[in-house]
Give the backbone structure.
Amino acid sequence: MAAQSVKGFKDILPPESERTAAFEALSRRVLEAFGFRELRLPTVESQELFVKATGETTDIVEKEMFVLTDAGGRHLALRPEGTPGAVRAFLQHNLNLQGGRTKLYYVGSMFRAERPQAGRFREFEQIGAEAFGNAHPSADVESILALTRILDEAGLKGRTTVHLNNLGCERPECRPAFRSRLLDFLRSTVSDLCDNCKRRVDRNPLRALDCKGDGPRLKEDPKTPRLEPCAECRAHFDTVLTLLPAGGVAPQLDSSLVRGLDYYTRTVFEIRSSAIGSQDALAGGGRYDGLIKSMGGPDVPATGWALGVERVLMALAAAGAQPRPPHPDVYVAVQAESPELEKAAFTAMQLLRGSWRVEGALFGHSLKSQMREADRLGASVAVIFGQSEFSEGKCTVKDLREKDLQSQTTIAELERAVRNRLTP
Ligand code: AMP
């Protein structure tokens, strides 16, 4: 059997590759309109970076990381997410010394050794944005609005929900107090918990709240303790809620939303689409004020998110909102096999490709089959080189969308004639 791709890793063929590129271009445009600038990160980092930043007890690090050892015995990992690398780069290159805010975005593959299923791959693409240096809720709001704007402009307006929660901070009366109340509660119900939660209940009790295992659904249990945020965290979150509607976002509050990672504080969010089945999260993120310091840097607040490109494209397909794949604007054909006509056709194609998508060069076939191909490709205009008109320095421009519209032009005027047909 011929070689096959590895399970969980996929080829992206046209038109999906074109849809992916179009979505990336739209995301870049929106992010740049919000003042984010591109950061290109390496695919491989030290394994330790993710253990430290993402968190030892998270699924991503505990079970899903592709690790490798290089010839020098160093433990490396294929990046499972972008934030740790972005923080490392921020610190390594002293971007904080530029003062003020640093707003960065990244686009690229992430790798997680998860069980492949619909909407879940081992290599998938994320677009992420990180805003460093602004503690004010406006940073959270701006970050969320950039994300929702991307999804809206892509064609998902009104088709997603924004889920929001306040995870509090590390002040003793805030999340630590909640964690210890939750811990007491979990210990009293430990026999019901799934094996995963039992094992990590002491180290990461919050994860039990959104456990997808076979334990009880704690978030639906009224006895489950809820976070009572400190006054500062409450005020911060209230401002987020006050400002978001200015950008047309009406979030749903969801106290069970804890996100998979250890580093989040205060506002966390997830965007979901009910149209794509059980893997319904399109994007997620939140504030992570303590992470940079915990990685040996200064006390810099930050907030960020990542979206899953494949999931967004799935949601667009489910909504019938996919952009039309590109098609040639111009198809160049020759009426008969003749080196003279073929040469003229190539010269014309070189010229026209300066402005349009041009297909053609199916020489050696009848004009009929060339025109059949032009139709199949969905070309808008055909340029046909025929022997007798060519001897008068002319060719034919034919509108393929309105079959009877055709005219002769001099070859010198060809570009203008095509432009006249293509621009109404
Ligand atoms: P996370 O970094 O886990 O918050 O993921 C952010 C987004 O990436 C999710 O909301 C998904 O859209 C997407 N994502 C995460 N894991 C996968 C995966 N294994 N396959 C495809 N998309 C994923």
